[in-house]
Amino acid sequence: MRERLSSYIREKIIISDEEVEQVLSLFKVMQVKKNKILISPGETCQRLYFIYKGCLRIFFLTAGGTEATRHFAFENQFATALVSFITNETSKEFVQAIEDTILYYISQKDFYHLLQIIPQWEKLYRHYLEYAYVTNTNRLMSFITLDATARYRQLLAQNPSIVMRLPNKMVASYLNISQETLSRLKSKA
Amino acid sequence: MRERLSSYIREKIIISDEEVEQVLSLFKVMQVKKNKILISPGETCQRLYFIYKGCLRIFFLTAGGTEATRHFAFENQFATALVSFITNETSKEFVQAIEDTILYYISQKDFYHLLQIIPQWEKLYRHYLEYAYVTNTNRLMSFITLDATARYRQLLAQNPSIVMRLPNKMVASYLNISQETLSRLKSKA
DNA sequence: CGAGGCCTTGACCGCGGTCAATGCCCGTGG
DNA sequence: CCACGGGCATTGACCGCGGTCAAGGCCTCG
After folding, report:
1. What is the pLDDT of residues B147-178, one digit of tens each?
2. Shortest CA gap A1–chain B (Å)
3. Which pLDDT does position A45 carry in this prediction?
4. What CATH number belongs to A2-119?
5. What contacts 24+ positions apart, CB below 8 Å, involve A79-84?
6. Which of A64, A105, B114, B151 is geometrically suited to a Cys-Cys bond with A47, CB 3.0 to 4.6 A?
């Protein structure tokens, strides 16, 4: 059952069996129903999640009250309200399970503890940050350079599972277009 | 002269005198004229820069040929085409000096060497990545939630030096609005 | 002094958002 | 099992933000 998490770790860094055990012992399992909100704005993000099964979504509310989705995370990925996790300030973002989901999680405190006692853990975190940065930057560039149609096509090409697996409403809020526009785009192409 | 760089490092991490010397020995100085391009698309980013005096700008070209500015960096900050530096793939971005600028730089090779021999260097890099991620995310959110007027006001409030110090053209390309729109915004408020 | 950028201002227009009506699917309870 | 209600998707009509194009003025630097 913890196979997934341990092999994820072993893929990224060189680590002894005892250290893996030490790491895994700090993770706990939890099971949440579809639509469950794990973190709300105003709270400080205290946990890092690893998705065993299901899907998490990081989103926030605009001034007008519409949801804007910043990230989707699926099986075998880490996810959290990363800005809050980094800054230790209250989150502006929600973290929500959008399917029935099974998660491992580690507290921020234990996570920072690992950074100190396992040097390689620092490296794993670095890789995660690098990945998050690159993803984020590509997304930023896509908003600047591409119109709604091109953004949709790009998502379809690079990440079809998002379009297939998730309801239109959420795909639209991820592309930062209205549900209506997405509907029109789909019917055309 | 190397004061600035060493005190920057000492602010972020705990490090011995010998180690600081070791780090500094890998940095070289260079002086570049206004408008000089340091990295162009197609090249792989081989260097990390530290700005002693002046200003760098990271930007790229849209399909239409207009410039889109992704980041400005001023005195006492690190800067590079970070995506390329991380992925080791060819850059999509330019790095340009937009004033007469004095820089320290370290090669990517030496930088990665430091990661291996000085554990605290990993931590410094981590902090840099965290900062870059948070900045980037805030920028992403501002594009999603704010219209042109609000983005301009926010920039003016949070980073007035960008608006004051740099030509309109570049401020506009940073806000992702046309020069004309920025001009109209300034004349109104 | 001239030329080339940069900034300003006006006229126009298109992408994509909002609002509204309708249809569809699905879960829930009588 | 069917009826109903609520959320999601579709389609049409309309409109506003901000982009583009163009002309004119100004400043800077060679």
Report:
1. 999 999 999 999 999 999 999 999 999 999 99
2. 31
3. 73
4. 2.60.120.10
5. A79/A48, A79/A49, A79/A50, A79/A51, A80/A39, A80/A45, A80/A47, A80/A48, A80/A49, A81/A39, A81/A45, A82/A45, A82/A58, A82/A132, A82/B133, A82/B137, A83/B133, A83/B134, A83/B137, A83/B138, A84/A39, A84/A43, A84/A44, A84/A45
6. A105
